[in-house]
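Lab notebook, bench 4. The sequencing result for the construct came back, and we need a structural model before the next group meeting so we can plan mutations. Quick request posted to the team channel:

Model the 3D structure of this chain.
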Amino acid sequence: MNRLLIRWAVFFICLGCIYLFINAKVHAIAQANLQSALVIKLPTFARDELVSNVESRMEYLLSRVKDVKFFIYKVKKRENLWTIAKKHGYSVHTIIGCNPQMKTYNVDINQKLLLPSVGGSLHPVQPNDTWTSIAEKYNVDESILKNTNFLMQDFSTEDFVFIPGKKPAIDLLNKDMQEKYALRELFVSPLAGRLTSFFGTRRHPVTGKISKHGGIDIAVKTGTWVGAAADGVVIVAGSGIGHYGTAVFIDHKNGYITHYGHLSKVNVRVGQKVRAGQLIAKSGSTGRSTGPHLHFTIKKNGVNVDPLRFLW
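Done. Here's the predicted structure in token form:
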């Protein structure tokens, strides 16, 4: 009786092993077929088309990148890269990094931009690139890179890799954007706050007239510390400085002069040398102003230039 039970036990064990073996084989074949089907169906595009055509770039990325949604965004009236980036919770770097067709920071109404659901940028694959070299270039974990770009087992110089949470590599941007990025090295933001008025034509909040706005307005509480945007020498510091009220002007000795207006207190004197980021004043609402904010101007050889060309 015991021998019979043992034989039946051995029989069922063998049968179970055969079942598991066959099931594993079937599963492996199914997975292999599924992967092959996916690889076959992946859309491919030439590099030039991926750069110039946002629709093609979106289709390409949606088929290769995991846990990131890509969508086409049309620029609306009175929007710029900074307002669009803020609306989606990341920096301007992400918009530039996902739109290699861009050669300027300026955008037009109804212009199409490819936006991701999370911050990051695209890496144009270079000759001799590997997962390891790309991960090292952007200081990102290689496993994260592979998991995000989950269907890119191999790549060529026609491809783009999405780098989550990172800025674009300046040396891989087009020539025009490389030159514009170089300007970002010149100045730092004088303080953090909400942009309420941009450079260019606007309706003046006090006079109601259409006029040129020579800088940007940053809304902050009265008494917020203001820092120098770059190394330089103070050439104006005090009250009664025209519509600025209390203001500081700094000469940066390279053709650039910065203005800081509507201050409540000045912390420097004329002739004083200052360093980038040094606290020079406190914000206020002096002069022609409707509320506490900092008016910040950058001049190059006496001509006003948009501060957002230099600041994020």
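Residues 194-309 form a domain with the Glucose Permease (Domain IIA) fold (CATH 2.70.70.10).
Will bring this to the meeting.
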